[in-house]
Amino acid sequence: METNNALAKVTQKIDDFNSEAKLHFKLHVDHEIQTHKKLLPHGMMYSAIHEQITNGVNKRMDQFTRDTDLKPQELYFFLGQELAKHPNLSKRELHFLAYDHLEKNTKNKFLKKIYKKMRKQMK
Predict the structure, then answer these.
(1) Domain that residue 33 falls in
(2) Are residue 62 and residue 81 in the same domain, yes or no?
(3) CA-wise closest residue to 23 among 59, 61, 68, 70
(4) Helix (H) or strand (E) holding 1
(5) Are residues 13 and 58 in the same domain?
(6) SS3 43
(7) 6-65, pLDDT tens digit by residue?
(8) Domain end (from 25, 47, 67)
(9) What is the dihedral of CA 105, 108, 111, 116, to 10 degrees?
(10) Which of 16, 31, 33, 39 has its CA 20 to 30 A from that of 97?
């Protein structure tokens, strides 16, 4: 039961991070729009441009958060199975296995590169 609670907390932290990242990104885009609004020719429909950009940002951020699902429970059970097979695994080897598992199971190309780089740094 404690494990489920701990995993639920990790999942909530990931969700909170994704929500916070979305908010920061949207604020940054809004700021950039306001900055570049001055450069656009007069008479253009700023609201239409803003709406297109906002829709594009929302679509990309939704895709990013969908693709960054780390599935902590899946990772926990995977590592548990590996420990059951090989009880003498070191903490370093578990980290390596975790990065390998995450790299193989993510759809996000950016995260794949990060996991691959982290694995290389551990060698």
Answers:
(1) 2-67
(2) no
(3) 61
(4) none
(5) yes
(6) coil
(7) 777 877 887 787 778 778 877 887 787 777 766 666 666 667 777 887 788 888 877 777
(8) 67
(9) 60
(10) 16
Whole-model pTM: value is 0.59
DSSP string, 67-114: HT---HHHHHHHHHHHHHH-TT--HHHHHHHHHHHHHHH---HHHHHH
Instruction: Name the token pair of 36.
Output: 């570049």
Total domains in the chain come to 2
pLDDT, tens digit, 9 for 90 and up, residues 87-118: 999 988 998 898 899 888 888 788 888 888 88
46 and 89: one domain?
Answer: no
Distance set, CA 101 to CA 23, 89, 95, 116 (Å) = 29, 16, 10, 10
Statement to judge: residues 62 and 89 lie in one domain:
no
Residue 21, token pair as written in the block = 């990242």
The residue behind tokens 């390998």 is: 100
Residues 12 and 61 in one domain: yes
Are both 62 and 118 inside the same structural domain? no
Give, in degrees to the nearest 5, the angle at Cα 22 between 19 and 24: 110
> Looking at the structure, do residues 47 and 86 belong to the same domain, yes or no?
no
Contact criterion met (CB below 8 Å) for 79 and 98? yes
